[in-house]
């Protein structure tokens, strides 16, 4: 009791002679989530301002006689003539490991009904990206668990890889599979089954999506045990344009905390097309000049400053990283539209998902020809690099020759062999959703394909053969998988063991 | 139709002509108002509205609203006005009001700046610290 009395006494004596100075304005116009405030002469760009009733806003438009503020909440009680006060602070969100497993809104407030988030630190939502010197090259892989991606379009920690495609082509599924794969690896590392693995924490930012979809995604992550390593930042379609505009930056701030503290994080922005639309709405209501397709002139900067904050820091700066998987939805496969081309030019590669492939049953519907990873094999382990080296080339040759497939009897042996191999690779790369494959199993599958062990299996039986091979390897060859997992390379000894294992399997497999 | 950008530009020019070092020149304002009313150029209503806004803001910028819990005596008023004029210049026009909800002390507003030394403000800040 005496402590609280002493505290109270010191607070009162501190307040006795002080006069506070603040900068205020008067609301002149309010509507559509934007307030025009007269006054606020000392306010700065992006500064938080306080409305009556504890509502906060952000000063975005600094004009000659008034300030345009976007409201961070419901502005129904705000009316003309209300006094607005500047706070001298930037918008910040809570960060830290206490947010893992939680679903929060754009301001970092809990919306999952599990109580307040535990956090002792806050990070500003808008922050300048790391410069050149604090960075280092991307070299550690993100094992997505999706065979096609890990083999041909590898992603590294600190890279920005765009996932682009039409609606319902599996973009979110690719991202969720990646998150689930990280959870499996993190758990295996905690149990001692995976050596030298740095955990990768995940942040899923949902912008403008249906609440039902987000609920389903969270349920999928919970079922897979991935929520323990994931933060979900939700700005659904029913949230204001302001919240949808801020959500990716809030998520990025949460990811930056991991990066700045020497840890690795992965952030999925799903999706940036809706983010651009929300920013367009905010800009138009603020009466900013509009440009192409009514987007404001700085829509490129909107995404570039967000994605530049994803990086891999040097060892001197903690060796942390933030990997970004932005998602963009195209219309009718048009990748040359405004927003898609903007984001393609910013990112370090793209995974292009095609509707045609999807409906042909090739899922994930990754178009190998149009997909690229600018980091390339620097983001692959030696093991994967050895077995996946020719795969992209084989598939490219297969695509070239596919047109001739109808003339089956008129082709030479070599061409027929290439077409057969291509068909089998396409079958091998089909994968069920929410079923990431561990990297050691991927190595064995790709080794078997590269060395022709699938050539005698009918194309329609490839998936069955693959499933049985996976089961055989995980149940009977766990020690081999453990060696591949630990060494991450195929030594001569391991090569022999893989050969033996595959031959053992093939001897008992009946197509 | 004259655009609002054009009206704003004209209003700004008229406002610049109406203000000198000593403040708003009322005679110039009357001349401008008279000309606009008589000649009624295209878009004159928009120009007038914007011109009025700029003048109003200039007056607000130089208006000091001094709120106190009780009526201030003459010496106190003089001292407050003198201090304000030292800080903001001689163009300051004081306006004294009373507001019992302040409980004690004074709250002075000059343009966008608010100097709050009221008891109510201190209690609110104390409450914020403990929350």
Provide structural commentary:
The complex is a heterodimer of chains A (511) and B (131). Chain A is α/β, with parallel strands linked by helices. Helices cover 39% and strands 19% of the residues of chain A. Chain A has helices at 2-16, 147-152, 171-190, 211-223, 241-260, 272-285, 299-307, 338-346, 355-359, 382-388, 391-402, 413-428, 439-450, 462-476, 478-487, 492-508, and strands spanning 20-31, 34-39, 47-50, 56-62, 66-71, 83-90, 92-95, 103-104, 121-124, 141-142, 155-156, 162-165, 200-207, 230-235, 264-270, 321-329, 349-353, 372-373. Chain A has an eight-stranded mixed sheet, sandwiched between helices. In chain A, helix 4 links the parallel strand 13 and strand 14. The longest helix of chain A is centred in the middle third of the chain and has 20 residues, at 171-190. Chain A starts with a helix and ends with a helix. In chain B, the strands form two sheets. A four-stranded mixed sheet of chain B has the order 4-3-5-6. In chain B, strands 1-2 form a two-stranded antiparallel ribbon. In chain B, strand 1 and strand 2 form a beta hairpin. Chain B contains five helices and six strands. Chain B has 131 residues and is α+β, with helices and mostly antiparallel strands. In chain B, helix 1 (4-18) packs across helix 3. The interface between A and B is medium-sized, with 19 and 18 residues. Strand 1 (20-31) of chain A pairs antiparallel with strand 6 of chain B, so a sheet runs across the interface.
Question: Key terms for this structure?
Answer:
heterodimer; A: 511 residues; alpha/beta; eight-stranded mixed beta sheet; six-stranded antiparallel β-barrel; 16 helices; 18 strands; 39% helix; 19% strand; B: 131 residues; alpha+beta; four-stranded mixed beta sheet; two-stranded antiparallel ribbon; 5 helices; elongated
């Amino acid at each position: 009791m005496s402590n609280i009395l002493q505290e109270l006494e010191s607070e009162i004596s501190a307040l006795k002679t002080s006069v506070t100075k603040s900068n205020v304005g008067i609301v002149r116009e309010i509507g559509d989530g934007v307030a025009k405030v007269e006054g606020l002469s000392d306010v700065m760009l992006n500064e938080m301002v306080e409305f009556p009733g504890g509502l906060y806003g952000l000063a975005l438009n600094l004009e000659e006689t008034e300030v345009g503020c976007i409201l961070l909440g419901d502005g129904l009680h705000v009316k003309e003539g209300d006094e607005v006060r500047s706070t001298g602070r930037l918008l910040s969100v809570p960060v830290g490991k206490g947010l893992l497993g939680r679903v929060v809104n754009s301001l970092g407030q809990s919306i999952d009904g599990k109580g307040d988030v535990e956090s002792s630190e806050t990070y500003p939502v808008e922050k300048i990206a790391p410069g050149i010197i604090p960075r280092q090259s991307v070299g550690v892989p993100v094992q997505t668990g999706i065979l096609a991606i890990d083999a041909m379009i590898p992603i590294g920690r600190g890279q920005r890889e765009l996932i682009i495609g039409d609606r319902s082509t599996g973009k979110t599924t690719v991202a969720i599979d990646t998150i689930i794969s990280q959870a499996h690896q993190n758990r295996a590392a905690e149990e001692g089954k995976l050596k030298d693995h740095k955990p990768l924490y995940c942040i899923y930012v949902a912008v403008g999506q249906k609440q039902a979809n987000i609920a389903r995604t969270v349920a999928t992550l919970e079922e897979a045990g991935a929520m323990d390593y994931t933060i979900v930042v939700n700005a659904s379609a029913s949230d204001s344009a302001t919240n949808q505009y801020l959500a990716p930056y809030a998520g990025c701030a949460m990811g930056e905390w991991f990066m700045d503290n020497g840890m690795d994080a992965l952030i999925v922005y799903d999706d940036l097309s809706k983010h651009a639309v929300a920013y367009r709405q905010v800009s138009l209501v603020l009466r900013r000049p509009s440009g192409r397709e009514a987007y404001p002139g700085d829509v490129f900067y909107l995404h570039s400053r967000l994605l530049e904050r994803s990086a891999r820091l040097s060892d001197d700066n903690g060796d942390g990283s933030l990997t970004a998987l932005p998602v963009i939805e195209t219309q009718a496969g048009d990748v040359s539209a405004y927003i898609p081309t903007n984001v393609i030019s910013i990112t370090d590669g793209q995974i292009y998902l095609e509707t045609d492939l999807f409906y042909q049953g090739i899922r994930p519907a990754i178009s190998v020809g149009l997909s690229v990873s600018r980091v390339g094999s620097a983001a692959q382990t030696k093991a994967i690099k050895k077995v996946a080296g020719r795969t992209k080339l084989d598939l490219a040759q297969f695509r070239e020759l596919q047109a001739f497939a109808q003339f089956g009897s008129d082709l030479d042996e070599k061409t027929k062999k290439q077409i057969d191999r291509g068909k089998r690779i396409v079958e091998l790369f089909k994968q069920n959703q929410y079923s990431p494959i561990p990297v050691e199993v991927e190595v064995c599958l790709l080794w078997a394909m590269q060395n022709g062990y699938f050539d005698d299996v009918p194309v329609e039986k490839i998936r069955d053969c693959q499933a049985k091979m996976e089961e055989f390897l995980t149940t009977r060859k766990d020690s081999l998988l453990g060696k591949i997992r630990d060494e991450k390379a195929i030594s001569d000894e391991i090569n022999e063991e893989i050969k033996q294992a595959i031959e053992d399997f093939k001897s008992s497999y009946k197509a | 139709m004259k655009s609002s950008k054009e009206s704003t530009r004209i209003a700004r020019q008229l406002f610049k002509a109406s203000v000198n070092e000593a403040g708003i020149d009322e005679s110039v304002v009357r001349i401008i108002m008279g000309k606009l009313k008589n000649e009624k150029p295209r878009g004159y209503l928009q120009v007038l509205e914007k011109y009025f806004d700029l003048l109003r803001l200039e007056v607000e910028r130089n208006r000091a609203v001094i709120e106190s819990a009780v009526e201030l005596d003459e010496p106190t008023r003089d001292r407050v006005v003198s201090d304000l004029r030292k800080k903001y210049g001689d163009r300051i026009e004081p306006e004294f009001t009373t507001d019992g909800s302040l409980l004690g002390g004074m709250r002075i507003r000059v343009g966008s700046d608010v100097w709050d030394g009221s008891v109510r403000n201190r209690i609110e800040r104390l409450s914020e610290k403990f929350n």
